[in-house]
Amino acid sequence: MSHFFRAISLPAICWLLVLSVQAAEQGSGGHVEQARTFIEQLDRGEAVQAVREFDAVMAKALSAEQLQARWGALEQQHGAFQKIHSTRVEIKAPYEIVLVSCQFEKNRVMARVVYAENNQISGLFFKPDGEYQSPAYVDPRKFTEEPVVIGKGLWELPGTLSLPVGEGAFPAVILVHGSGPQDRNETVGPNQPFRDLAQGLASRGIAVLRYDKRTYHHRLKMALLSQRITVREETVEDAALAVQRLAGDPRIDPRRIVVLGHSLGGYLLPRIAAESKDVAGLISLAGSVRPLEDLILDQTRYLVQLDGKVTSEEQAQLDALAVQVERVRSTDLSESVSAVDLPLGVPASYWLDLRGYQPAQAARSLSQPLLILQGERDYQVTMEDFRLWKEALAEREDVRLHSYPGLNHLLMAGEGKSLPTEYLVPGHVSEKVIQEIADWVKALRPL
């Protein structure tokens, strides 16, 4: 796997199907001592030594000075570092993630140190090892939450229904993940954008269903399908089952069920709508229009050029990725082509299924109204995608498009050039986004 794969898939939300196997053996794994040493170096102010463990892309994205400043910010927020409380390991092939529970004076913080096959650090997250802190726009008095199950049998998924207090039936929104193995909160580092969305909307009278993604909850079984998987197994089928689940709930207005897709979820909205007759509206948050392989190449170029220069090694890897992208585009692509010869190790079945798929063009003929929202600082799905949505849907009067200055791919605020490292900073989905979604859903004409 290339440095670029690690840079895109771990510090950021990327367009990638990652099939993973998890182990949670206390203190096991080949990199536990390395991770402990890494944390101890930060405590001693030895970030210069610590960053020597970074791979090429991490070294570009996070300097020693930035890393030490981040550690200092943790101590300012949580008090002086005291000790390493515990460690455990997750295996997400080909990565090994060491979770280091760090005891500070006031709180405990979890460090996720991600090691790649070359034994270098390819990802790093810090998040409170404790309770989620709700944004100010969430009012827990106005909603309740309950566990639900999506689907049944082999692929059933656990989820959470956020339900407004009071008499229904309520309009409802279903949250559909971006790529990769995502939990129901779409957790990225210390951030939980789907939890923000669910509880923010529920505080405003809208029921919200979120659930663990199939590649997250059923990672072992999904790994068995890895060479013939498509977006239907990854995302579309479960989104349609979630619509079916809500349509049968008497507390939900079946005429006002909306599907909200983030990133990959937004890209797949036309396919989800094709399988779900009970959908009254569609919302895209940072949903792409361009082909997946183009996004991967563009994201990679962006990341390696962050410091204004491209090394010979990086250029060689860029060239290799470009060759893989050309294989995806080739009319000779078939399921006999090995996944190792394709971008990010994603199998040919996945690429073939998406061949010719144009979400913006497909959205022209949809019967449902659309709300398309985009952060203007998003480097993963860019304003070019937003422009293409706008161009394709210009003749539809029931489409609203809005871009937000200062927001990134998670629809969270930031400043300056968008960097993968900002996903390490705790934040919340902008209240402006929450309010716009709530207003749009409430004004939606029932089926």
TrEMBL record:
Entry GO MF terms: carboxylic ester hydrolase activity; serine-type endopeptidase activity
InterPro entries: AB_hydrolase_1, AB_hydrolase_Est10, AB_hydrolase_fold, DUF3887, Pept_S9_AS
Positions of the AB hydrolase-1 domain: 173-412
PANTHER family assigned to the protein according to its UniProt record, in alphabetical order: ESTERASE ESTD
Keyword Hydrolase: yes
Pfam families found in the cross-reference section: Abhydrolase_6, DUF3887
Domain DUF3887: 35-124
GO biological process: proteolysis
Signal peptide bounds: 1-23
Annotated protein name in UniProt: Alpha/beta hydrolase family protein
Keywords for the protein's UniProt record, in alphabetical order: Hydrolase, Signal
Organism: Gimesia chilikensis
